[in-house]
UniProtKB/TrEMBL annotation:
Similarity-based family: Belongs to the intermediate filament family.
The protein's name: AINX protein
InterPro entries: IF_conserved (IPR018039), IF_rod_dom (IPR039008), Intermediate_filament (IPR050405)
Keywords recorded for this protein, A-Z: Coiled coil, Intermediate filament
Annotated segments matching region Disordered: 92-117
Any single GO CC term annotated in Swiss-Prot or TrEMBL for this entry: intermediate filament
PROSITE patterns: IF_ROD_1, IF_ROD_2
Source organism (scientific name): Baryphthengus martii
Coiled-coil portions: 7-66
Keyword Coiled coil tagged: yes
Length: 117
């Protein structure tokens, strides 16, 4: 009878441990599913962020191209203005012998540029 009581006690302990193991496995499975969901969300966020960065990079490149084109155009106009100023000064020098008034000079002062693009 002592052995039977001990066996019953061990069976009860075994069942308790089995239930506890099952509960732990279920809890672990739920946590793993939750973590997988979080990983999926983070991967989506990362993908969206990469796409947004690529879009910003393209926009920046477009703006940089526009800036370079404008810089080239400004340089061309500046060169034209310098040529005009040189011609104006040369004409003014020949006139100064006829009319000794102070020699006017032209100075280029660019205005602020704003773009809606």
């Amino acid at each position: 009878q002592a052995r039977l009581a001990e066996m019953e006690s061990l069976r009860g302990a075994h069942q308790y441990l089995e239930r506890q193991l099952q509960e732990l496995e279920e809890r672990h499975s739920a946590e793993a599913a939750s973590l997988q969901g979080t990983i999926g969300q983070l991967e989506n966020d990362l993908r969206n962020t990469k796409n947004e960065m690529a879009r910003h990079l393209r926009e920046y490149q477009d703006l940089l191209n526009v800036k370079m084109a404008l810089d080239i155009e400004i340089a061309a106009y500046r060169k034209l203005l310098e040529g005009e100023e040189t011609l104006f000064n040369m004409g003014s020098t020949s006139l100064s012998t006829v009319n000794p008034v102070s020699n006017p000079t032209y100075s280029f002062q660019p205005k602020g540029f704003s773009s809606s693009t």
